Every structure is written in structure tokens, then in C-alpha cells.
Amino acid sequence: MKTTELFAEQVLIGLLVISILGLIFYHPLILLYKQHAGSTDYLEQFVTGGFVLGAAYLIGMVYDRIADTLLQDLESHGRVHFALQQFKVTDFDRFVVPDSDPFEDGKYRILVLGNSQATDHMEYLRSRIRLTRALATLTPGIMLSLLLASDDGRAGRWWYVAAVSLPVVYAATLFMKGMKWKSVEKYRPPKTYDLKKLAKYMSRGRMLLEDLGRRRRAVRWFVFQDEVWVALFVLAVVAAKLVNGSYGRFAVLVAGVVVTAIVGWSWWRICGTFYAFLRDYNRYGLKPPPV
What we know:
By secondary structure, the protein is mostly helical. The protein has eleven helices and two strands; from the N terminus they run H-H-H-E-E-H-H-H-H-H-H-H-H.
């Protein structure tokens, strides 16, 4: 990927984060803007704009990693289930445990780097993954900050509770993702190269041939055992308290839920497209064309 494209991507993500802060402090910022609305100091404005872009780039780099951590388990579930499709026994709708890594992600990426056109396509997909991942995780925050900005005082003390809950929920979810407690770790998806944990994962999902007498658990059974859903529920409850009978705020709440679902679904599907591209290039891209 070109440096300018990567820069623009990180700046865009950073601006989304800054927009949340701007909406939370909307009223003080509006007063500050009115005080300087007639300023003709263009050098000051130029320096301020450059500072905002620089800050957005740095914030975007940091938040890109945060978003990756927040959704890493959901992505891993998708990768594992995609990798296991080639080991499915169709007649029984069950799987056999692979005897080697079913999805050598690192190897596939290195092979793609040997072809410039394939590399461009891979980086294009990765860029889409990063952007949709960031938007999916930031949309709930944008929705809640919009409700805070549009509040006319009816929320009372609950406004401060909601404002504090926003960073607390994100920080708590990130903290939980970094924990290695056994009670939490057993729900984490395994790496595809860890065959022992992969077999336990498949057994827990009733995916093996010996589980024929039991109903197989679909990928959504694994996916919904994640801290992200608890965080979304808490933010939704906090946002609902800010509606206060206003149809406009209720529309913001509904729009936030719908947009989060659509963007999250898009991110999930793009990840699947990315896995398929790596797999297919490894299978067919390295073979010489037929004469």
C-alpha cells in the first residue's frame, strides 16, 4: 500500500475518534468557536489545521490497534470456521480434526508478496478490513456522543454518568481482552496451528463425527460468547436513558444500532473474502498458466 493511502486511512480513523470527543464537548467548543469566528489570523488557522491532522494520524494509528484487539476474537472465530470447511464430511455435517495447520496465514501472505498485483489486492482488502473494523467499533461511541451533544439539560446528572461510561466501557472491554484468566480463556478461539486446542474447540462446538447424536453448534454460538456484546448492551442501555421521550434522539439510537450492525456485518464478510483470496492464491496463483 502506498504511504499516502495509509496516511489518509489513519487520519480518517483518527478524525472519527476526535469527532467523538468534539461531540461530547460540543457546547464549550461552540462557545470557543464563536469567540474566534471573526479571526483573520490565517497562520494560526493553518497551524491549528496541521496540528489536528497530525493528532488525527497518531490517534488513528493507536486506535487501529485498539480496534484490532477488540475484535480479534470474533475475527479468529471466522478464520477458524473458514479454515475447517475443507475438513467437512458433507454427508454428516461434521468435521475431522486436521493433522496440520489448516490455514497458514503467515505463509500465505509471504507468498502473495511475490506478486505485485496480488499484493495490491491484498492490501486493498486489508485496508477495507481496517476501516470497517474501526467504524464498527466507533459507531456506538459516535451514537452516544451525538445524544450527549443534543441533550438540552433534561438528562441531569445522568449526562455525566453517560459521558464517563463511554471511555470506561471501551477501556474495560480492552482490559478484558488482555486478561488470561482460565474462566475467560476457554471461550477464546484457538490459533489454527495449535491442533490440540483446535480439537477441543471443535469438540465444544459438537463439530466432530463422534458428536453425531448431538446438535452441532453454529459459528454464532461461539461468536456471541464475547465481551464485545456486553459492552454494546451497556452502551445501548446508557443511550436509551438519554432519549427522554424525544423522537429525534430515539432515531439517533436506532440509526446507531442499525449502522453498527451493517458495518459489523460488512467487516465480517470482507474478512471472509480476504481469507478466500489468501487460500485461492496459494492454491492456484503460484501455478503456471496452461499452455
